[in-house]
Specification:
heterodimer, A: mainly beta, about 0% helix, B: mainly beta, 7-stranded mixed beta sheet, globular
């Protein structure tokens, strides 16, 4: 089973700033099959990125993903108030599919 | 745009079987794979498993001995059964469209395991 470790656990930033979230895998993620999700309290997760770098339908271009192998990054170029949430990475390169523990992005 | 809605008991007794149903908007059930994912209160996400409309299944090994996912195309529904539940199975259960990454989700339903 691939273990995903996200860092930092909590990120405190202000609107307008740039956010960089990290996801490291315990072994290489096959085919760069890595996704990122945003989750707000009381809501289902929202798919942001799949295939490590492809934005899902309707996702603003301030969200970008990159990486391969064991190291992946989600970048939010300029934070909007609605971006403050918990972010999860998820690998689907090998079963069982696994999630990171999440990064909480909070307003500074 | 597909819509999904979970339904089922919100309270299950320990050692019993948790049963949930996900109703899918008309026309989609026979076109995809269908998954269940859960999230204990205040914790992270755990993939449970998926089933295709044609019967292909894949379950998380950590739950495999207790899980059954089934699809009923005539009712536009798919279901989750989790047997021998304990308090550790208390979670919000989400249904979602797709096998391995999920764009469309239900809103989730909280299932509490308690006597």
């Amino acid at each position: 089973e691939i273990v995903l470790t996200q860092s930092p656990g909590t990120l405190s930033l202000s609107p307008g700033e740039r956010a960089t979230l990290s996801c490291r895998a315990s072994q290489s993620v096959s085919g760069s099959h890595l996704a990122w999700y945003q989750q707000k309290p009381g809501q289902a997760p929202r798919l942001l990125i799949s295939g490590a770098s492809s934005r899902a339908t309707g996702i603003p271009d301030r969200f970008s993903g990159r990486g391969s192998g064991t190291d992946f990054t989600l970048t939010i170029s300029r934070l909007e108030p609605e971006d403050f949430a918990v972010y999860y990475c998820q690998q689907y390169g090998s079963s069982p599919y696994t999630f990171g523990q999440g990064t909480k992005l909070e307003i500074k | 745009q597909v819509q999904l809605q979970e339904s089922g008991p919100g309270l299950v007794k320990p050692s019993e079987t948790l049963s949930l149903t996900c109703t899918v908007s008309s026309g989609f059930i026979s076109t995809s794979y269908w998954s269940w994912i859960r999230q204990p209160p205040g914790k992270g996400l755990e993939w449970i498993g998926y089933m295709s409309y044609s019967g292909i299944t894949n379950y998380n090994p950590s739950l495999k001995s207790r899980v059954t996912i089934s699809v009923d195309t005539s009712k536009n529904q798919f279901s989750l059964k989790l047997s021998s539940v304990t308090a550790a199975d208390t979670a919000v259960y989400y249904c979602a469209r797709g096998a391995s990454s999920w764009f469309s989700w239900g809103q989730g339903t909280l299932v509490t395991v308690s006597s």
